[in-house]
Amino acid sequence: MVHDPSIDHGVLDETRQKTAKPTLYKVILLNDDYTTMEFVLHVLETVFHKTPATAHRIMMQVHTGGHGVCGAYSYDVAETKVATVQGLAKREGFPLQATLEEE
Ligand code: TYC
Predict the structure, then answer these.
(1) Cα–Cα 20 to 30 A to 17, which of 3, 29, 62, 88?
(2) With a threshold of 0.70, does the pTM exceed it?
């Protein structure tokens, strides 16, 4: 036999299973009294690619509960979505705010 694995040669031949588990960041939308529901729906549908029904559910969650999760993304993508939301809101004169939270 060329190689008998039952013999301990003092060599570590185990392979380590290295599963990539990227940290995800939730994008949280915050409630306020001035941003229109219509604009929030627009943001959820265009920036977060939600269906009208899902966008409505998330928007009402934010409206009644104060905050809601739009989705979870890699740090770079989440950060870009927050900046996009704030840019669109600023352009329209709304105080809508979004933040990041590690999942
Ligand atoms: N509270 C707002 C209103 O009554 C609607 C709203 C919903 C605003 C969600 C922000 O993230 C938000 N017009």
Answers:
(1) 3
(2) yes
